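input
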Amino acid sequence: MSILRAIALSPALVTFACSATSDVGDAGRIDRLSSPLSEPSYVEAGSYFTEPADIDAWYSLTRALKADFDHICGDTFCEGDYSNYQSLGFRCSIEQGSGQLGQCVWSFAASQDEIDAATGKVTVAGEIWSCPMPLEDDTSASDFLSVLSSSDEQPLFTPLPGSELSLYDGLVDCL
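output
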């Protein structure tokens, strides 16, 4: 029996074969097949890296970014409505199968604290920012980590892989 005849005789087989869907890009190309078995799965960068050197590099990078921000804060972002800016965390999502970065976001909080001299009450005004970072499409997590960890510059000012922009540029657009 030919394959076409088997397919014609088996509606269930035809239904199964046609059940996968695809996303079509701008040029009509298929970006990825999407079925329950091939859906992307994203994890936080801290749990993506498994080699001890990569884990150390990731956490060293996040500490260096916080230190870089603290170093420039008073001369840039930390003037104006709020005086107490704090980096809450730098997080990146990574697609487990491909190792591609999904998104990186740096979050911050700031406050302005005042004391009422007559009553002793402390009033606090605050704000929280969630700053998406300017990543190029198809940036691999390993390239991102390698470029920002090995630069002679502060990682905050290092151009991102495939870009002229840095993480600092993402902060300028956000804070």
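quick obs: Helices lie at 3-9, 11-17, 45-48, 52-73, 141-150, 167-172.
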